[in-house]
Amino acid sequence: MESFQIFSCLKGSLGHQFLLFIVWSSSFQVAVALQTPLEPNHVSSTSELGTPPISVLPRYPYPGENLAPMMYPTFPTTYEPNLTGKCPVNFTAMSNVIDRTASDCSQPLAALVGNVICCPQLGSLLHIFQGYFSGNSDKLVLQNAVADDCFSDIISILASRGATITIPTLCSVKSLNLTGGLCPVKDVVNFEKILNTSKLLEAISRCCK
């Protein structure tokens, strides 16, 4: 009887300790659950863009900033030329031809294709210039002094519109190209003296029949 009471006492104490263990473990789980921070779901405040397709053009790595100066195309700087004021030709009437020549003889291009593009275009400009000069006077070519002034103005205008200043050296041209050189026909009067007008008109009339 005494041994049974001892067993019952031990059994009761073990059961009591077991209940305490269960209560303690449940309290510990609740405490851990309260201390563990909840990880918020990843929700972007802005809509996410898809990966852009691969482009053949390089992308600027800093889209939020302005482009660097070297990434912009560069164009020749234009300015008002300093003319002599002694050339009797209206350069405004030749503006289109001058712009084309300045473009073909631009600084980065002339050194590479000078003999192919720049110099032939410059030769055409000088011939057109002589035509404008002759149309406003009875002279077919320019006198030396006037040729120097006009040639200087032509080069100054071309340089002011982006052409290289070394055009005369690059294309081997000078003011003498605007003069008659050794040609004896320099004006309309001498041309009419040398030309047999009656024979020319007779030949023209035969061709027109």
UniProtKB/TrEMBL annotation:
One Pfam short name: SPARK
Domain SPARK: 84-207
Keyword Kinase: no
Signal peptide coordinates: 1-33
Keyword Nucleotide-binding: no
GO cellular component labels: plasma membrane
Keyword annotations of the record: Signal
PANTHER family: GPI-ANCHORED PROTEIN
Protein name: GPI-ANCHORED PROTEIN
Organism: Salix koriyanagi
